Amino acid sequence: MYPFSRFLTYFMEVARQKSIRRAADELRIAGSAINRHILLAEDQLQTPLFERLPTGMRLTAAGELLYGCARRWMTDYDDLTRQIDEVKGIRRGQVDLLAPEALSRVLLPELIARVQARHPGVVLNISILENKRIRQALLSGEGDIALVLDPEEMRDLLVRSRVAFPLGFVCPRGHLLARGGALSLAQCAPYPMIVPEPPLALSSVFSRLAAAEHVVPTVAARANNVQMIKSLVAEGVGISFLSYLDVMSEVMRGELAFMPLSGADVPRLTLAVVQDRTRQLSRTTHMVGNIIRDIMAQYLQKMTQDGPANPTA
Question: Residue limits of the HTH lysR-type domain (predicted)?
Answer without folding.
Answer: 8-60
